[in-house]
Amino acid sequence: MSKLQYNYDKEEQCNIKEYLKYTLNISGRFIRKSARDGRIKVNGNSINLRYKLNKGDKIEIDLHKDETQNIEPEKMELDIVYEDEDILVVNKKPGVVVHPTKSHPKGTLSNGILYYFQEKGENCIVRLVSRLDRDTSGLIIIAKNQFSHMALARDMNKDSFKKFYLAVIHGILKEKEGTIDLPIHRPDDSSLKRVVDPKGQRSITHYKVIEEFKHASLIELLLETGRTHQIRVHVEHLGHPIIGDSLYGIEEDKMYIDRQALHAYKLVFPHPRTGKLLELSCDIPHDIKELIEVLNES
């Protein structure tokens, strides 16, 4: 059973809620929920959040909580890149929807992950920290408990949390490295497509050219913000849409690749429990490798 354990070693007394929130940087919402469920103990006894800590007190927070989720578990081959008691990181295949919807109630990554947890005997629900479009491949983080989910959600907006992508785009960029700082807007609620528009949210993408071909480029992108379709919208606005992008790109690309050539290949982030920086990566998928081979030959 996963637990957080701390020893209080200060001479002066301290309110436990303030210590957990401000000294240990634990989410206030998580602290309140855990206390309400009786999962915060000091020296083996459940306490309320008015408790004053004394030197030598042993704090224990039980991360286990019985929860259910309206997702059908389905056996699925998962490409697991990293796993421990707090998080699971998988390399999502292209064409796989991340979470069940009305149009995709089954066969999603979440269905497969829930099956995986149940087969291992882990009483976890699927807590997605990051998401990818159906036709974007690459790394996705799943939190195994409420604590790690809240910690990672909090850290996603910090500089220490980095999401790197590789994309094959049309054309040759004049600037080989730069930043795209353009607001992204959804024209109306029924629109799937996003556009660059002053009415939108500020959106920042950093890019660097990795390799150039005759009429295309392989680029690395680092997201500073995480808007829907951000990379796809930004490069299309510059006149360099991602090859294979059926929504923002060119229809004729289907003869080369049947989805956008976009892959979330690297994540750098602090571990929710230890704070240690994790750097995880995965290979370019086969279909993008084949596209690069074709571009090299042309």
Automatic annotation (TrEMBL):
The keyword Zinc-finger does not apply. Residues 86-237 form the Pseudouridine synthase RsuA/RluA-like domain. Responsible for synthesis of pseudouridine from uracil. Its EC number is 5.4.99.-. The active site is at D133. Transmembrane segments: none annotated. GO terms for molecular function: catalytic activity, acting on RNA; pseudouridine synthase activity; RNA binding. This is Pseudouridine synthase. It comes from Clostridium cochlearium.
